[in-house]
Automatic annotation (TrEMBL):
GO CC list: bacterial nucleoid
Keyword list, A-Z: DNA damage, DNA recombination, DNA repair
Organism this protein belongs to: Mesorhizobium waimense
Lineage of the organism: Bacteria, Pseudomonadati, Pseudomonadota, Alphaproteobacteria, Hyphomicrobiales
PANTHER family: DNA REPAIR PROTEIN RECO
A GO biological-process term: double-strand break repair
Stored Pfam families: RecO_C, RecO_N
Protein's recorded name: DNA repair protein RecO
Length: 254
């Protein structure tokens, strides 16, 4: 068995004295693992870092076997991402979400989205919005997508302010007013075509929204805890947006 594909590295772990198990998100073969012989060598280690985009050749005797990877760098993103706590935790969070999907199931749209996000993940002002939207995509791929297109009660598409915790559908401000204390806030930037940017309060609402449905539909039924990386990502975002934060150029003397 053999195939060639493009992939983004999600993580590695040691195997024996010199090899590594590589975990990648591929364009056509989904999330996939394979053994890289000599993966801990000086030559291979810089290539096999999370966030890097690689050309992959996978071989195995049978399709169900772990198999071996040969990986060649296409785009070296890891060094850039490692300079930002937001980027590091963001990538780890997305990797944790991708592990909720069945291994080797193709999700071409998620791969393309991941590639775009990695290009901008070290921009902390954009990363929060990107990861929040990625979480909505994962919920959709898992079969628990939210309907944020129109009000569940009236069908209107304007002034959507809430999401029903029962149905996962949007509710307009007027229709949801009598039950606003029981509703989840719908940040305006998550609505398709809004063109709006998220402030820190909107980001908190967005991750409270996605976190609620991850817990209800995914974590609790599977007996899982939310990934630690997600908490780390949110903490890094809060530090970035903290009032009076000193710009990076000033802290480094540039």
């Amino acid at each position: 068995m053999e195939w060639r594909d493009e992939g983004i590295i999600l993580g590695t772990r040691k195997h024996g004295e010199t090899s590594a198990i590589l975990e990648v998100m591929t364009r056509a073969h989904g999330r996939h693992l394979g053994l890289v012989r000599g993966g801990r060598s000086r030559k291979q280690q810089p290539v096999l870092q999370p966030g890097n985009r690689v050309d992959l050749l996978w071989r195995a005797r049978l399709d169900e076997h772990l198999g071996t990877f040969q990986a060649e760098a296409i785009e070296m993103n890891a060094a850039r991402l490692m300079d930002s706590a937001v980027a590091v935790y963001g990538l780890q969070t997305m990797a944790a979400h991708l592990r909720l999907l069945p291994e080797r199931d193709a999700h071409g749209g998620l791969y393309e989205t991941l590639a775009v996000m990695i290009a901008h993940l070290d921009d902390a002002d954009a990363a929060g919005e990107l990861v929040a939207r990625f979480e909505l995509l994962i919920l959709d791929e898992l079969g628990f997508g939210l309907d944020l297109s129109q009000c569940a009660a009236t069908g209107v598409r304007q002034d959507l302010a809430y999401v029903s915790p029962k149905s996962g559908r949007a509710v307009s401000r007027q229709a949801g007013a009598p039950w606003h204390d029981k509703m989840l806030a719908l940040p305006a930037f998550l609505q398709r075509g809004s063109g709006l940017r998220a402030d820190p309060a909107a980001l908190e609402d967005a991750f409270r929204l996605t976190g609620f449905f991850f817990t209800r539909h995914v974590y609790e039924p599977r007996g899982l805890e939310p990934p630690d990386a997600r908490a780390g990502f949110l903490a890094a975002l809060r530090r970035h947006h903290a009032p009076g934060k000193v710009p990076a150029a000033e802290t480094t003397g540039q």
